[in-house]
C-alpha cells in the first residue's frame, strides 16, 4: 500500500520538477516578456483557487476520489498537448488554465486518500510524501542535464514521459468504496472558517505563498542572470528539495519537542532570511547553497504543520473542503498574487527586488502568526468560536 500511495506523489511532483525550474526559461526562449511570463506561471497557482474546491466538494459528496484523480490525470494531460500547437500568448494562457484546472484537482483529493489509507499510521505521512520530493529531484536533475545538450524549446517533449507516469500511477491506486457520511451540522463549515485561529492560519500560508512568487517564477531566470547554467540551476533546485526530504524524515521528532506554533514562527523567520540572502548574495555560492537548504523551513516544515491544522480544524465532515481551501486560498491565491507582484517588481526594478518583496511578506506573516495562531484540536471536532 505504501508503494502505491508513494507512486503518484513521485510522478506528480516530477512534473512540478520539470515545470517550476524550467518553464519560465522555456517561456523566455519563446520571446515572452517578464509580465507575460509572470502571468503564464501564475496560472499554475491561479486555478488552485477554484479547482480544488470544486473537486474537493465532489470528492466529499460522492466518495469517489480515486476516480476523480484518474479523471484529472487523463484530462489534464490531453489539454497540455495544446502546448505543441504553439498558440501564442493568449492561446497558451487558455491551454495552461485548462490543463492546470484538471491537474490541480489531483493533489488535494489524493492527500485525503493518503491520510485515510494510512488510518492510525498517519505519522507515516512524511515517509509517503517524501517520494514526491524524490520525483521532483529526479526530474529537475534529469531534465537539467538534458537541457545542457538540447535547446529549452524541447521542454514540452521532455515532459511527456512524466505525464504518462502520472496517468499510469493514478490507475494503480485501488478504487474506494462509495462513501456516504451523515450530513454535517448546518453552518459548521462557516464556524470553522471564521474561527480567529483558522483565519490566522490561512493568512500565514497566503503570505508564505506570496513570498514564494519570485522563487517559483523568476529564480531560474535570476540564476541565469548571475551566470549559472541549466545543470547548475537544476542542482540548486534539487538541493532545496533534498533538504525538504531530510526534514520530512525527522518532522515527527520536531513535533514532539516543539509546538506547531513554535515551528511555524521559526520556519517563517528562516524563510525571510532565505529571500534576503538570495536577493543580495546570489554570486556567493556557499551562501546560495545555505539559502537553498532553508527550503526545509520554507516548504517542508510549514506544509507538514499545515496538514495537521487542516485535519484538526476541519474534521471528518469537512476534511476534503478544508484541504481544498488550504490549497486554493494559499497555494492558489497566494501563489498567483505572488507571481504577478514579482512580475511587476522584476519588470520595474530587478529580480532581486522581487525577492526583497518576499522577505517583506514574511515579516508581516510572522506578526500575524505570533498574535493569532493556535494549536489545532487533537480531536476531529470543530473548534469553538469562543477562543
Automatic annotation (TrEMBL):
Q: Where is the Major facilitator superfamily associated domain?
A: 2-355
Tell me what this protein is called: MFS transporter
Coiled coil residues, start to end: none
Has the keyword Transferase been applied to this entry? no
- Give a yes or no for keyword Cell inner membrane in this entry: yes
Q: How does it sit in the membrane?
A: Multi-pass membrane protein
Q: Which Pfam families does the entry link to?
A: MFS_1_like
| Main location per the UniProt record | membrane
Amino acid at each position: 500500500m505504501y508503494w502505491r500511495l508513494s507512486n503518484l506523489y513521485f510522478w506528480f511532483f516530477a512534473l512540478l520538477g520539470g515545470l517550476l525550474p524550467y518553464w519560465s526559461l522555456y517561456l523566455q526562449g519563446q520571446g515572452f516578456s517578464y509580465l507575460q511570463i509572470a502571468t503564464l506561471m501564475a496560472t499554475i497557482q491561479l486555478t488552485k483557487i477554484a479547482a480544488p474546491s470544486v473537486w474537493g466538494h465532489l470528492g466529499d459528496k460522492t466518495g469517489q476520489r480515486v476516480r476523480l484523480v484518474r479523471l484529472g490525470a487523463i484530462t489534464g494531460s490531453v489539454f497540455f498537448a495544446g502546448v505543441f500547437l504553439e498558440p501564442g500568448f493568449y492561446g497558451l494562457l487558455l491551454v495552461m488554465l485548462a490543463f492546470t484546472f484538471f491537474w490541480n484537482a489531483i493533489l488535494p483529493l489524493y492527500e485525503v486518500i493518503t491520510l485515510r489509507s494510512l488510518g492510525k499510521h498517519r505519522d507515516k505521512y512524511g515517509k509517503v510524501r517524501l517520494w514526491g520530493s524524490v520525483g521532483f529531484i529526479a526530474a529537475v536533475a534529469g531534465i537539467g542535464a538534458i537541457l545542457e545538450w538540447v535547446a529549452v524549446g524541447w521542454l514540452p517533449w521532455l515532459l511527456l514521459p512524466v505525464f504518462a507516469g502520472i496517468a499510469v500511477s493514478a490507475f494503480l491506486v485501488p478504487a474506494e468504496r462509495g462513501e456516504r457520511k451523515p450530513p454535517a451540522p448546518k453552518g459548521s463549515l462557516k464556524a470553522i472558517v471564521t474561527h480567529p485561529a483558522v483565519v490566522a492560519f490561512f493568512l500565514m500560508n497566503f503570505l508564505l505563498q506570496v513570498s514564494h512568487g519570485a522563487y517559483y517564477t523568476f529564480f531560474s531566470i535570476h540564476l541565469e542572470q548571475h551566470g549559472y547554467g541549466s545543470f547548475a540551476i537544476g542542482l540548486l533546485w534539487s538541493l532545496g528539495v533534498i533538504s525538504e526530504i531530510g526534514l520530512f524524515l525527522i518532522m515527527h521528532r520536531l513535533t514532539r519537542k516543539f509546538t506547531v506554533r513554535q515551528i511555524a514562527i521559526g520556519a517563517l523567520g528562516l524563510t525571510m532570511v532565505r529571500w534576503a540572502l538570495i536577493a543580495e548574495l546570489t554570486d556567493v555560492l556557499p551562501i546560495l547553497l545555505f539559502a537553498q537548504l532553508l527550503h526545509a523551513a520554507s516548504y517542508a516544515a510549514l506544509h507538514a504543520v499545515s496538514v495537521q491544522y487542516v485535519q484538526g480544524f476541519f474534521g471528518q465532515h469537512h476534511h476534503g473542503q478544508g484541504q481544498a481551501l488550504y490549497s486554493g486560498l494559499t497555494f492558489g491565491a497566494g501563489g498567483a498574487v505572488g507571481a504577478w507582484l514579482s512580475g511587476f517588481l522584476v519588470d520595474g526594478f530587478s529580480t532581486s527586488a522581487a525577492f526583497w518583496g518576499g522577505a517583506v511578506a514574511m515579516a508581516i506573516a510572522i506578526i500575524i502568526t505570533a498574535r493569532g495562531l493556535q494549536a489545532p484540536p487533537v480531536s476531529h471536532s470543530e473548534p469553538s468560536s469562543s477562543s
